[in-house]
Protein 1
Amino acid sequence: MLALIASRIAVMIPNVIILTFLLFAATTQFLGTPAAIMLGEDASPETVAELNAQLGFDAPLLVRYWDWISGALSGEFGRSYSTQQPVSEMIADALPLTLELAVWAILIAFIGAALVNSVTFLKSLVEKLVAGVSVIGITVPNFFLGLLLIYIFSVQFRLLPTTGWSDWSDGVGKHLMHMILPALTLTTFYFSSFSLVYKAEYKSVENNLFVRAARSKGLSESRISYRHILPNSILPLITYAGLSLGQLVGGAVVTETVFSMPGMGRLLVNAISARDFPVMLAVGMVIIVGVMLLNLLADLAYSLINPMVRTAG
């Protein structure tokens, strides 16, 4: 297991370096110089050049990247151009909310797809229901689905808060009430895609010899489904869940914006609007490293369930 972790980390480190360099180069080279943005459109070229020199923005790209990445690795991302707050504090405030939303979305989608698609009684009704939800989740954009859920559950039935956020300190019930619609919005897409992956594997495992042997012993279909087919069908779902984490970030950006949640998505949208380079770079780096780490955890979970992966690694 330690050898597997070491090999995954050895692959992850150069990938992080390459991706963060591309992020830094694209952000600082193509969106205009930070000095020009800080001084505004009316600033003269001489003033912009002078500030670039003072702040080191005129240094070669590799030098600037090294200065930024060395500071970022120590937790120092600089200050926001628009608010003058330390970027590390802004990230620390926004990250827990996004992580919580992502955990809820992945867990509900993963567990729901595995359990619901293993139901044997009323199978035709369940399949039609899952197929309908899958079509909605895959084809309907997140922002539209979020607005639709707000209209149904908040405006029409007045069951849930429209937008906004409530911390755990305000009460567990109030916090979860504000989390239901954003989590449901983000979960729908993943439940749909996870269901398609799981159902395909479920059907292939269903025809295996050990399943037919279990049926010949007179075991109930429910027991066969949950005790024999589900554990052997869930491995591809773990892999797909790990690969889907990058898409989760994009969904969180839209979802947090629709529901006015002060998470990483909303922070990134505001930073892009203001061309706040330190915040944009910090959020981008956190996303890159976070996706890499979560994929590593998915690999480890897969290897724990399937010993053949550990042997091959």
Protein 2
Amino acid sequence: MRLLLIEDDDRIAGPLTEGLGRYGFTVDRVRTGAAGLADDGSADLVLLDLGLPDMDGLDVCRALRARSPVPIIMITARGEEADRVAGLELGADDYLAKPFGVRELVARIRAVTRRTGALPAVPQAPGTGAPVAAAAPQRLGSLEVDRRTRQVWVAGRETALTPREFDLLAHLAQDPGAVHSRQQIMDAVWDPNFFGPTKTLDAHVASLRRKLGDPGWITTARGVGFRLTVPGESPPGAAG
């Protein structure tokens, strides 16, 4: 699904683009309202900041809605009721005030697309016009991770994981053997605005180790974080 992000602040746009990419979205980002209006119109949904450097986001919303039914979610620091009402009356489909977590935004995107009946574009292979094949399941020793179906198998037997456990495993499996810091994991699997106890990560790691059947799948880099390894092939110095 292609998203058009109209946001001038790099501190917001960078993490947002990265976070949405982890959920399978393709994000094209522009910095001004004019650039957003000059887009080719192929986006499945628009994420629109109101505080743009060249024009008011409300005017961008009005212009987009005049020419297209594309779903629009406003993302802005303006949290006043008058701004929310104005945006919705101009045709925005939802309104999300900063700060917010990526998970909340993803939930809003999914809700809006369900409500509007928007259909995501078929991903195209760069420069070919051909559909991109679905990613094959990842295999690490006896472990198999299918991100498309969110299923996991160990030694050929399917292992039931909670959504958070799957996200944790998939994150570690992106770069097996590499140490992922606790903060990196919390930002990626929870989100940068999560303020709960960090012990929740330890609890999920412990549960995941049990379900995978061998604590050696996830080893601890003391004082740093965790890594995913094939049992028996743990890097020297790793402690489980």
